[in-house]
Design goal:
By secondary structure, the chain is mainly beta. Helix content is 4%, strand content 34%. The longest helix has 6 residues, at 10-15. The protein binds FE2/S2 (inorganic) cluster. FE2/S2 (inorganic) cluster (FES) is lined by residues 81, 83-86, 99, 101, 103, 105, 116-117.
C-alpha cells in the first residue's frame, strides 16, 4: 500500500502541529460513563468525508480524534501516536490517519501500523450512530 503524506511544512512537523484544529467550542459533545456523545448536526468538522474533530478535556482519559470516513462511517482513535505521542490527522482519500510529526507514522482504519517508526497499533474505539448522535464507547 502506497503511503500518502499530508502536505505539512517541516516547521509544522518539527513542532508537532496537527492539521486538525481544536473545535471553536466543545458544546457538541459530552462524556459520561466511558461514553462520548456527539451531536452530529453540530459537529462542524464532521460534515464531510475526511473531516475530523478533536475531543480533548472534559475528563476524558485520553485525547480522541473522530474521523468521518467514506460511506458515512466514523472511526475514533486515541489521538496519541504510539511512537512518541504526537497527535494524528486523517489523510484525505486514503482512510488512514497519520502522525503530525516528522516521522509520519501512518495507521489504517483498524489502527494497524502501515508505515513509520512504531510497531504498536493506535487504539481504536467503537462508534455507533443513534438518530443524530454518535456514541463512542471507550475501550
Ligand atoms: S511521534 Fe508519531 S511518528 Fe514519532
Amino acid at each position: 500500500m502506497e503511503v500518502i503524506k499530508l502536505n505539512r511544512s517541516i516547521f509544522q512537523r518539527i513542532l508537532g502541529k496537527p492539521a486538525t484544529e481544536l473545535p471553536e467550542n466543545n458544546d457538541f459533545w459530552s462524556f459520561t460513563d466511558s461514553k462520548i456523545t456527539i451531536k452530529l448536526s453540530e459537529a462542524n468538522g464532521l460534515s464531510k468525508p475526511d473531516g475530523a474533530v478533536r475531543l480533548e478535556g472534559k475528563g476524558l482519559p485520553n485525547r480522541i480524534i473522530l474521523v468521518h470516513g467514506k460511506k458515512d462511517q466514523y472511526q475514533a482513535y486515541d489521538n496519541k501516536c504510539t511512537h512518541m505521542g504526537r497527535r494524528v490527522d486523517p489523510v484525505p482519500g486514503t482512510e488512514t490517519v497519520q502522525c503530525c510529526s516528522v516521522n509520519c507514522a501512518t495507521f489504517n482504519q483498524k489502527g494497524e501500523v502501515i508505515d513509520g517508526p512504531t510497531k504498536k497499533p493506535l487504539k481504536t474505539h467503537p462508534v455507533t450512530l443513534e438518530n443524530d448522535k454518535l456514541i463512542i464507547t471507550l475501550n
